[in-house]
Amino acid sequence: MAGVIEIRTYRANPGERESAIEVLRDSIIPAQREAGMQILGPFPSSEDADALVWFRGFADEASREAICSKFYGSARWKDELEGVIRPLLADISVAVIEDAADLWSHWPE
Length: 109
Description:
With 109 residues, the protein is an alpha+beta fold.
């Protein structure tokens, strides 16, 4: 089965994009990598001063569900990380796609 990729688009509250990127880079992405997610980004939009995009990759849908359930159910997420990132964001959009081109297996660790 092909990998699964999430295309995550975040809209920060006005003036908060750099803070959101910092929290993602310094705290959330390292924690998610430790949980088993492969991640590229975050990438600030060149067209929208409040938007950023990042990608998460998983071997398959079953591993995505298991890893996400464990991560978002953890005390670290609930007690620490969620309360830091959520106030910075106005909107979160996630598109889940099948990695038909097998890009997931070539992502850097």
